[in-house]
Amino acid sequence: MKKIVNEPADxxxxxxxxxxxxxxxxxxVRTDPAVVVRADAPVRDRVAVVSGGGSGHEPLHAGFxxxxxxxxAVPGPVFTSPTPDAVQAAIGETEAGAGVLLVVKxxxxxxLNFETAAELAEVDVRTVVVQDDVAVExxxxxxxxxxxxxxxxxxxxxxxxxxxxxxxxxxxELAERVGSRVRSMGVALTAPTVPHAGEPSFDxxxxxxxxxxxxxxxxxxxxxxxxxxxxxVRRLLDPVIEDLPFDEGDEVLLFTNSMGATPLIELYLAHGxxxxxxxxxxxxVRRRLVGPYVTSLEMQGxxxxxxxxxxxxxxxxxxxxxxxxxxx
Amino acid sequence: MKKIVNEPADxxxxxxxxxxxxxxxxxxVRTDPAVVVRADAPVRDRVAVVSGGGSGHEPLHAGFxxxxxxxxAVPGPVFTSPTPDAVQAAIGETEAGAGVLLVVKxxxxxxLNFETAAELAEVDVRTVVVQDDVAVExxxxxxxxxxxxxxxxxxxxxxxxxxxxxxxxxxxELAERVGSRVRSMGVALTAPTVPHAGEPSFDxxxxxxxxxxxxxxxxxxxxxxxxxxxxxVRRLLDPVIEDLPFDEGDEVLLFTNSMGATPLIELYLAHGxxxxxxxxxxxxVRRRLVGPYVTSLEMQGxxxxxxxxxxxxxxxxxxxxxxxxxxx
Amino acid sequence: xxxxxxxxxxxxxxxxxxxxxxxxxxxxRLDREIGDADHGENMERGFRxxxxxxxxxxxxxxxxxxxxxxxxxxxxxxxxxxxxxxTAFLRAASAVGDVTELDGTAVAAxxxxxxxxxxxxxxxxxxxxxxxDALSPAVDAAKSAAGSGHGPSGVLAAAAxxxxxxxxxxxxxxxxxxxxxxxxxxxxxxxxxxxxSTALLLGTFAETTGVRR
Amino acid sequence: xxxxxxxxxxxxxxxxxxxxxxxxxxxxRLDREIGDADHGENMERGFRxxxxxxxxxxxxxxxxxxxxxxxxxxxxxxxxxxxxxxTAFLRAASAVGDVTELDGTAVAAxxxxxxxxxxxxxxxxxxxxxxxDALSPAVDAAKSAAGSGHGPSGVLAAAAxxxxxxxxxxxxxxxxxxxxxxxxxxxxxxxxxxxxSTALLLGTFAETTGVRR
Lengths: 328, 328, 213, 213
Ligand SMILES: Nc1ncnc2c1ncn2[C@@H]1O[C@H](COP(=O)(O)OP(=O)(O)O)[C@@H](O)[C@H]1O
Ligand SMILES: Nc1ncnc2c1ncn2[C@@H]1O[C@H](COP(=O)(O)OP(=O)(O)O)[C@@H](O)[C@H]1O
Ligand SMILES: [Mg+2]
Ligand SMILES: [Mg+2]
Ligand SMILES: [Mg+2]
Ligand SMILES: [Mg+2]
Description:
Chains A, B: InterPro entries: DhaK_1 (IPR012736), DhaK_dom (IPR004006), Dihydroxyacetone_Kinase (IPR050861). By secondary structure, chain A is α/β, with parallel strands linked by helices.
């Protein structure tokens, strides 16, 4: 296992210590349970947008804590959702009279643990469950669609609304709106290695790729021969477009995401292809995000996410944000 | 070869196309020769800070084009320095009456090609050669120390000075000052694969690491058994500290850099260790940068860079910057 | 054939912890095949924490031990299995009340309550390829053993045997709940890690209780 | 034994391009071992561009061809080898002036000027494990062949043979210039890619000129 770590069991705690050291102006870190909180939390009369989930997807979520985005993030062990008391601690650190919006990616573990925390909370808590992964085709005979890349877009936009002072109802409505208009799909070229497991989560041949992967090193929906960038982008983009569907004339945000080890040179290349394919269909890309934002440790691969914009979403997207990973 | 590419020969051009599409507000891209230029270039009466080098180190340099940093970047083929006419084109696009400062990493190819461009230029051009890599121990019997992580810090600080309106003399003096106070060292856990070569640049056993690597998939100074994060950080930090040397009481910027595929969770972990080791020596970390900023395609590994700050450098570091990869 | 005391329950928890530690890699491997490779790690972390809680704060009744295990699992496991096992132990604790010794019927009732807790939280039914596929036959077997007059050790032995068969039979199933469900048809051909850990725990509980008799 | 015409020089450039394309992978492999795995790619790109320039804009003299090759290499190769080979061809072009045919002495003088150009830019000396280790013995051999009255083909054949030996002998050297120097002692045991490409080009030039005679 090729990793820069000490004891596998300490990876998350040690990493959070480094994060706290790196960003003293932006955030503080509580340990036991582990919670990453905005430096200036609680922010009076502002809805606290709180998210979390297993670690290993960095910068998601802790890298999005700060002005204009998350009030707190709750990092669980690698690929394992955090426990309810950690979520409760995050609520306690950030609630400031306007309630809490929990952003939960749709995995059984995340849903159950956040649900328990919400039940136990004594403040006004609302939950949005992100489920943007179109790779999960049959969502009635499964745990439902996973929450993947769309999570970042939702956190940014709802975080902007909270920063602006919108109330919990309005933030929740916006979150549901973003959730209903965002779709994603991902591909892996290599498997990640979970530190405590010590070996790759699945085996891929030298000329194979895994299509429709999640972000936890789960194997994907199917395996296929590795293709050119053109082929790969088309395999991700077509199902995303057709699912909502996104139509000619729609204005969208295009998010081209690296799963970790796919370098920027390849990611921009893929992004350029996606822009061209969308233009060919008359879908108008108005905003874009390109980079490693929702990752799966050192997995090579990428995902594409489309969000159908409206004026309010676009305007909120553009408002200032100041976090370790997103800043403008 | 596991990459998201079409024809290997087209990687750089296609990637730049995607980059142009991704950041229309920040930059524009010229092709043939390839040059990435600030959207608002030329900026009248401002020194144009121009850098470049082989591609494959993204976001270096094109990701640092924008307000408060580079006026232009000149991306060569993968791991191959650009030609003089490309550098000349960048000078032509950005020179605006106050001269041009070329930031060149110390590799024979970069030095020779930028040198030729500078000789042919008809405007006031000054050059700084970055050579911060302490892994090159014997710089008289080699091509001299390589330019690595320190390049980003120099580009930021000198870019800030140029943005502020400092003249070419002052910008050049600042560049030399940063160059004289910055030191770096890197390690690789895996080798990168150059698209046109199709196989890894060197072979590393499952339990080996390569210490003192550059950023081009060159093998390092020596091979050693893989160690814990503690051990790795110490092997990078000690020679960096002892080289300048950095002393008790010094104020520094600590830059913990991923070589590409080392994920943030590991990088922050390593950063935390470096902060602790510096504190133990009484060296005061005043600013930090953590992330994949000077990479080597999909290489796993990291580098540590220390810059000895003074008030002016710190203040310039903090001024606003707005580029694809660095923004505050 | 006596009842199951507080000490017995504590011993069972300790033995359960040792068992999941011993089978940690097996559970990780099962979870790597159709999940995210953490089930062994999760269970080990949870049961270690449970043992240390149970040993540091003396509980007076079997129910109190089960409740402490429940809250510790909930606050230390995470993932899907944390809330599910946690809820199972919580409901089992409620079911046994504050008696100081459990007889066979009480053990069967505790198992049944536990299973209902898992179902309430996770909404899985038999055949969805989850821990329910081990737990449900275990409850049936436990109830019939208790009905024929078996004590705790006999009830747990029957439950464990049924759970083992149930777990083994998950191999052919296509998952419809949890992370394995994303694999669709590809989830068939692998034993469900949660069903396996359920069988493992019940087997260990049966053994410990059997030895203590 | 005639002189070397403009047509001959063009043919040599074309053959050189074919040779580097054919040996592209070998040069990449050599450069992967002690450099950054691009020398074959760089040379192929440069010489293809040179051929297309030379074929599209008719040059009148050998010197004009060499100059066009020089500027094309400079503006299309990049890396260390681009400016170095570019300067070599530029100096060679100056050395031959505007004669329409090169004799053996002119060829030797061109090689010598080329080498001086590489030295002026790259500051390498013999033994530094660079293209100089092929070029320097080649120049010596060329001068002595020209001195004994050989024409272009004989001069180039002598130069090529010496360059091959020189390139082969770089294997044992520790690099002190270029990217390979970072490897220190580890650079020994590998042939320098630039020395190899120099020998390859000279060998090809000698062959083409020999055939045309
Ligand atoms: N909805 C559910 N109902 C019952 N059991 C479930 C459900 N979802 C998952 N499980 C069980 O949880 C196990 C996985 O646990 P674990 O790996 O610890 O958590 P996670 O899936 O979050 O990584 C599965 O093997 C399955 O037995
Ligand atoms: N200073 C120098 N003087 C002469 N030749 C040099 C010098 N530096 C490098 N070279 C030659 O250049 C070759 C490498 O060329 P290439 O791989 O194309 O460029 P780069 O090293 O920039 O990747 C080396 O093998 C060596 O022969
Ligand atoms: Mg998990
Ligand atoms: Mg090169
Ligand atoms: Mg799991
Ligand atoms: Mg090279």
